[in-house]
TrEMBL record:
The record's free-text note on cofactor binding: Binds 1 [4Fe-4S] cluster per subunit. The cluster is coordinated with 3 cysteines and an exchangeable S-adenosyl-L-methionine.
Enzyme class: lyase
Name this polypeptide is given: Phosphomethylpyrimidine synthase
Gene Ontology MF term list: phosphomethylpyrimidine synthase activity
Entry's EC annotation: 4.1.99.17
Binding sites annotated in the UniProt record for Zn(2+): 269, 333
NCBIfam families: PRK13352.1, thiC
Annotated TM spans: none
Coiled coil feature spans: none
Length: 434
C-alpha cells in the first residue's frame, strides 16, 4: 500500500477499497467519504491485519452504528459461549464487537475474532495487561502498558479504547471534586489506581506519541476513553467529565497530525435534558470527531431494564451528534449478559439507532418504515416478519395467539381498523358481528 492509514490515504487523494465499501453501503459518493475521512469527521476502523473485515464508517452523517461488548471474565470463562454471543450479534446486524475479556487466554480469543469475525473488532488493552502480566498492578511498568497496545495492534484489532485523558492533573481535580459515584470506568479506574500506587504519570498520556506510532503502523483507530464519564445522573456534566473532554480534544488534534483516526467516547449516565448540549460541546471541543456513547442511561433506577434507559438516551444522543452506540443489556450493573441478554440489548440499541437515523434524515432510513407500514396496510403478515427488526420474535408472538381469521389478530379480531377500512374502500360490507 502507498499509504499508512485510511486518514493518510484520504489526505493524499486516495479512495481506498474500504472507503468504496463504506460509500456503497451508505449510498454516498466515495469522494465525499474520502473528504470526511481526511477531516477526521468520519472514521473507518480497519487494521491492516484484520483480513476478513467488512469495513464500516462511523460518523454522524452516516447510519448510526452499534457496538456489542462481550468477553470472558473470571466468573464466566466459557469461550464457546462468548463466541456464540459474537455470532448471534453479527447475525443480528451489529457492526462492531468489542472484546472486553478480563480472564483466561485472552489472546487466543482475540485472534480468533480477528481471524473469523467480519465485524469491526475493538479492545481495551488496559484490561488485558492485568491478565497478561499476571502481577500486582503497581508492578506493571510503563513499557509494559505500551507493549500490550502493540500486541493488540499486531493481533488485528481495528480500534482500541485507551484512557489517555486522565492524567495526574485531572486525577487531582477528580479527588477534590467529591463526585457522587467516583470513577465507574473499569479502564479508567485501573489507570487511576496505577497512578496513585506508583506516583507516575499515565503512560498513555505521557507517551502518547509512541501510542500514535503504533496506531499509524497498523492503522488502528484510537478510541479515546472517558475515564471520568458520569456513573450517575448526579455527576453528569460535572467538572471531571468536562475537564477530561477538553484533554481529549487536544489529544484528537495531535492524533490527526499523525494521520491517526480518532473516536471520542462519551457518557455514561445523563438526564434527558442535558444530552443535546453534551453532544454539541463534544463536537465543538473535539472538532467533529465521531462520538461513541454508552447509552447514555437517562435514569439510575432501572436495573434489569437498562437496555431501555440506554435506548432512550441513545436515540437522543444519535439525533444530536453521536454516531456510534455501545449497546447496554438488561444485565448491565448486575452480571455478565447471557445470549438472550445480548439479543435484547442489540435490538434496543438498533431501535435507538434507527429512530435517530430517521430524525437525521439519513438516506434510505425511512424506506424501511415505509415498506413495513405498507405491509401492515395490506395485512401481509409474512412481509411484516421479513421486515421486522426481530422477525423471529414477531412470528412467535403471532403463532402463540392464533386468531379466528387470517386477516385479523387476537387484539382486535373483526374490529381491526385496517381490515375494515380496506373492505370499505373496496366497496365491501364490514362484517364485525357476523
Amino acid at each position: 500500500m502507498n499509504y499508512t492509514t485510511q486518514m493518510n490515504a484520504a489526505r493524499n487523494g486516495i479512495i481506498t477499497d474500504a472507503m468504496k465499501t463504506v460509500a456503497d453501503y451508505e449510498q454516498i459518493d466515495a469522494e465525499r467519504i474520502r473528504e470526511l475521512v481526511a477531516k477526521g469527521q468520519l472514521a473507518i476502523p480497519a487494521n491492516k491485519n484484520h483480513q476478513c473485515l467488512k469495513p464500516y464508517g462511523i460518523g454522524d452523517m452516516l447510519k448510526t452504528k452499534i457496538n456489542v461488548n462481550l468477553g470472558t471474565s473470571k466468573d464466566c470463562l466459557d469461550m464457546d459461549v462468548e463466541l456464540e454471543k459474537v455470532m448471534e450479534a453479527v447475525k443480528m446486524g451489529a457492526e462492531s464487537i468489542m472484546d472486553l475479556s478480563s480472564f483466561g487466554d485472552t489472546q487466543k480469543f482475540r485472534r480468533k475474532l480477528t481471524a473469523e469475525c467480519p465485524a469491526v473488532i475493538g479492545t481495551v488493552p488496559i484490561y488485558d495487561a492485568v491478565v497478561y502480566y499476571n502481577k500486582a498492578l503497581r508492578d506493571i511498568t510503563s513499557d509494559e502498558w505500551i507493549d500490550i497496545v502493540r500486541m493488540h495492534a499486531e493481533d488485528g484489532v481495528d480500534f482500541m479504547t485507551i484512557h489517555c485523558g486522565i492524567n495526574r492533573a485531572t486525577a487531582e481535580r477528580f479527588k477534590k471534586s467529591k463526585r457522587h459515584t467516583n470513577i465507574v470506568s473499569r479502564g479508567g479506574s485501573i489507570i487511576f489506581a496505577w497512578m496513585e500506587l506508583t506516583g507516575n504519570e499515565n503512560p498513555f498520556f505521557e507517551r502518547y506519541d509512541e501510542l500514535l506510532e503504533i496506531c499509524q503502523q497498523y492503522d488502528v483507530t484510537l478510541s479515546l476513553g472517558d475515564a471520568c464519564r458520569p456513573g450517575s445522573i448526579e455527576d453528569a456534566g460535572d467538572v471531571s467529565q468536562i475537564e477530561e473532554l477538553v484533554t481529549l480534544g487536544e489529544l484528537t488534534t495531535r492524533a490527526w497530525e499523525k494521520d491517526v483516526q480518532v473516536i471520542i467516547e462519551g457518557p455514561g449516565h445523563m438526564p434527558l435534558n442535558q444530552i443535546q448540549a453534551n453532544m454539541e460541546i463534544q463536537k465543538t471541543i473535539c472538532k467533529g470527531a465521531p462520538f461513541y456513547v454508552l447509552g447514555p442511561l437517562v435514569t439510575d433506577v432501572a436495573p434489569g431494564y437498562d437496555h431501555i434507559t440506554a435506548a432512550i438516551g441513545g436515540a437522543i444522543a444519535a439525533t444530536y451528534g453521536a454516531s456510534f452506540l455501545c449497546y447496554v443489556t438488561p444485565a448491565e450493573h448486575l452480571r455478565l449478559p447471557t445470549v438472550d441478554d445480548v439479543k435484547e440489548g442489540i435490538i434496543a440499541s438498533k431501535i435507538a439507532a434507527h429512530a435517530a437515523d430517521i430524525a437525521k434524515g439519513i438516506k434510505g432510513a425511512r424506506d424501511w418504515d415505509h415498506d413495513m407500514s405498507e405491509a401492515r396496510r395490506e395485512l401481509d403478515w409474512e412481509r411484516q416478519f421479513e421486515l421486522a427488526m426481530d422477525g423471529e420474535k414477531a412470528r412467535r408472538y403471532r403463532a402463540e395467539s392464533t386468531p379466528e381469521r387470517e386477516d385479523t389478530c387476537t387484539m382486535c379480531g373483526k374490529m381491526c381498523a385496517v381490515r375494515n377500512i380496506n373492505k370499505i374502500l373496496r366497496g365491501e360490507d364490514v362484517d364485525i358481528m357476523d
